[in-house]
Amino acid sequence: MSFAELWRQLEPIGRHPAGGYRRYSWTPADAECRAWFTRHADGLGLTAEQDRNGNLWAWWGSRDAAREDAVVTGSHLDSVPDGGGYDGALGVASALAAVAELKSRNFNPERPVAIAVFTEEEGARFRVPCLGSRLITGAIEPGAARALGDDDGVTLAAAMTAAGCDAGLIGADEGLLARLGAFVELHVEQGRALAPMGAAIGVAEGIWPHGRWRFDFAGRPDHAGTARLADRNDPMLPYASTVLAARQAAADHGALATFGKVIAEPGGANGVSSSVRAWLDARAPDEETLGETAAAIRSAAEISAGEHGVTLTVRQESYTPLVRFDETLRDRITGVLGAAGITAPVLPTGAGHDAGVLAARIPTAMLFVRNPTGVSHSPAEHAEEADCEAGVHALALVLEDLAG
Ligand SMILES: [Zn+2]
C-alpha cells in the first residue's frame, strides 16, 4: 500500500465543506478514521487492537508479553476545529506506509514493531490535550477523565460507552507501557524552519515549556455616552495595554505570548465593560525565560490596572514543563539519516505532542516533515507529496535500524 493511496482514502474523512477537518474523538468521523487504520493494519498483516483507553495499536512481530523493547511509531487522527489534514494524520499514514516499505524489502524485525494511534490528542472535544497518552501513563486520574464533558455536556464516559467501549476500564496501563522500548512520532512541521534550510526532514530537540494564565480585569460598568473619561474604571484599557505588553515581553525574551481568547462583560456596544477576562498562552525555550516573560506581562498588567482603578486577578490554569527528548535516540536517528544522505536539522518545537507525554516514561523522538507555509491547525497546513514520501522513507530507515 503506497502512501499516496493511503492518503487518498483518508483525506475525505471528516472534512467540512468549508475546507477544514472536524475529526473529533468518539464521533462518526473518528470511527471512520479508526476503520481506515484497522483495515490497512490488517492488510499489512499486523495485529490491530484497541487498548483500555481507546488508543489503537497495530503489532508486527512478537506480541510476547515478556518482550519489553517494542519500537513504536504513530501519532493521532483527531483534529482541532477546522484544522488541517496533516497534523497527526501524516504520522499515522506514514507509519503504515513505512511498515509497507519494510515488508516489501522482506525486512524481519528483531524487536516487535507497533503503530499507535492516540485518542483525543488535540483535546478539541474534551479539552484535555494528549488525553489518550496521559491516561496510559497515569498523568490524569481516570475518574476525572471520565467526567470530562464536551460542548453538549456529553461526558467522555458516555461518548466511549456509545462507541462500544467500557469507560470503567480507563486508566494507567503499566502492562502496555512495559512492552514499549522506544517511540518515534513523525509529524508535520508546525512552524517554518525547514523550508529556509532546504531540508525536507527535521528531528525534534525538545518541546518548549508552556503555560496558560487567566487574567481577570474587574472595573465598573458605565454609559458610553455620559460617563466622563476621567471618571471611568474601564477594564478594557489595561487589558489592551497588556496585549501589547505581552507582545513586547515575548519579543524581548525570545519567547511567544498570545492572548487568543477574551470575554468582555456585559458585552454592550454602547457601554463601558464591567469586566474583561482573557487568557494568555506563553511558551519559551526554557522554564526560566518562560517565568520571566510571564512575570513581565503580569507586572505590566498590574501597573496599567492600577492606573485605571481596575482590579486585576491572575490565575495559572495549566503549566507543562520543558520536554527533553532522549539524546541517545536522537543522535542515533540523525546518524542513520545522515548515513543515508538525508540532512535532518535538529529543531525545537513550541507545540505539545503525545511524544512529549510518553517522553517521561520511555525514550522518545520526533521526526518533522517540512511544512512550506509553516501554518498549522488551519486548512493552510500543507506538506508536498514528495516530502511526505521522504518522511515515509526516513521513518522506514529509523524503524529498520531500531528494530533490526
Ligand atoms: Zn499533532
Secondary structure blueprint with pairings:
Blueprint: H1 3-10, H2 28-43, E1 47-50, E2 56-60, E3 70-76, H3 89-104, E4 113-118, H4 131-137, H5 142-146, H6 156-162, H7 174-178, E5 180-188, H8 194-197, E6 201-207, E7 210-218, E8 222-223, H9 236-253, E9 256-265, E10 271-272, E11 275-283, H10 287-307, E12 311-320, E13 323-324, H11 327-339, E14 346-349, H12 354-358, E15 364-369, H13 385-403
Parallel strand pairs: 3-4, 3-5, 5-15, 6-14
Antiparallel strand pairs: 1-2, 2-4, 6-13, 6-15, 7-11, 7-12, 8-10, 9-11
Helix pairs in contact: 1-3, 3-13, 9-10
The protein binds zinc ion.
Structure description:
- This protein has 404 residues and is of the alpha/beta class.
- The strands form 3 sheets. Strands 1, 2, 3, 4, 5, 6, 13, 14 and 15 form a 9-stranded mixed β-sheet that branches. It has a 4-stranded antiparallel β-sheet with strand order 9-11-7-12, with helices on one face.
- Helix 3 links the parallel strand 3 and strand 4.
- The longest helix has 21 residues.
- The model has no long low-confidence stretch (mean pLDDT 95).
- The structure holds zinc ion (ZN).
- The site of zinc ion has 6 residues, from loops.
- Zinc ion binds next to loops.
Bound ligands: zinc ion
Question: Mind summarizing the main beta sheet?
Answer: 9 strands, mixed
Number of strands: 15
Radius of gyration: 23 Å
Q: Distance between termini? A: 22 Å
Poorly predicted tracts of residues: none
- One letter per element, helices H and strands E, the order comes to HHEEEHEHHHHEHEEEHEEEHEEHEHEH
Average pLDDT metric: 95
Helix content: 25-40%
Shape: globular
The helix-and-strand class reads alpha/beta
Number of helices: 13
In what range is the share of β-strand residues?
15-25%
